Amino acid sequence: MPVISTERDTEALTLTIVARFDAPAERVWQVWEDPRQLERWWGPPTWPATFERHDFVAGGESRYVMTGPDGTRAGGWWRAIEVRPTERFEWEDGFADADGQPDPSMPVTHAVVTLEESDGVTTMTTVSTFASLEQLEQLLAMGMDEGMREAMGQIDDLLAG
Amino acid sequence: MDPPQRLRDDDADAVFRALADGTRRDILRRTLTGPQSISALAGRYEMSFAAVQKHVTVLDRCGLVEKQRFGKEQLVSARVERIAQASGLLAEFERLWRYRVGRIDLLLDGEPSERASEEHPSTHPSTDP
């Protein structure tokens, strides 16, 4: 089980996930940096993501599209705030409209991932900060349908087993 | 894992507005540990009793706290189940991240990757479980 701890702060509305991978930080960094690797894990179950743009430098932007089982497409964007290779990535994640442009009426999530390597093992900490309960609701209503919940449940079972 | 109870949109709006204020967040934090009288709360802030009462009313309206009369005093308590909804929502995101971490682990664990698939940027392996 690579996830070693999680913390939900219901007051600050942050979610912290700490995971440990049996790989050097340089290798773990690649799954963020390389859009082809990124799209193999970013999209939720049954909603694979395709990154059409991934400008992985401070101030750079990314654009991705997730496609649901019924063909529904959902667009998203990232805006990189800090990119410190193999150590830290801070960014904003939001929804895009049908043309792939950031939709200002939709909520934006602030997130930071940090990598720390020790003896070839990398600890990855991600902290997601939500602006409000309303935003969390909206994100879940948009992004998570029944099929996805079901798939996620199966994965929970798989990982627990 | 149980799906969280959903907040309706307008409810969520009200909760958001209520929590946007530092004093109200502080009042909520204090009532989480046990019921507080409005006068005791009022003593903690540099504002009038009426102003504190107003903040409590905002929290009460969106269901984050409830008021009970106890003799001459009004006691304010946090509605823990409401706060649990926030926890439920975060829990769903936690599941998503657990899934993502599992996928990263598979990817690192020898799925041929590097930049080998760059020639076919529009195709990607199925993320179906």
Descriptive notes:
The complex is a heterodimer of chains A (161) and B (129). By secondary structure, chain A is α+β, with helices and mostly antiparallel strands. Chain A has a single domain (3-160), classed as Alpha-D-Glucose-1,6-Bisphosphate, Chain A, domain 4 (2-Layer Sandwich). Chain A is 24% helix and 43% strand. Chain A has an 8-stranded antiparallel sheet. The model of chain A has no long low-confidence stretch (mean pLDDT 84). The two termini of chain B are 18 Å apart. By secondary structure, chain B is mostly helical. Chain B has 5 helices and 3 strands. Chain B is elongated and about 70 Å long. Chain B has a 3-stranded antiparallel sheet. Chain B has a domain at 9-79: Winged helix-like DNA-binding domain superfamily/Winged helix DNA-binding domain (Arc Repressor Mutant, subunit A), CATH 1.10.10. The longest helix of chain B has 29 residues, at 80-108. At the A-B interface, strand 1, strand 2, helix 1, helix 2 and strand 8 of A face helix 1, helix 2 and helix 5 of B.
Short account of what is shown:
The complex is a heterodimer of chains A (161) and B (129). Chain A is α+β, with helices and mostly antiparallel strands. Chain A has helices at residues 25-33, 35-38, 133-143, 146-160; strands at residues 3-9, 14-21, 49-54, 61-67, 73-84, 88-96, 108-118, 121-129.
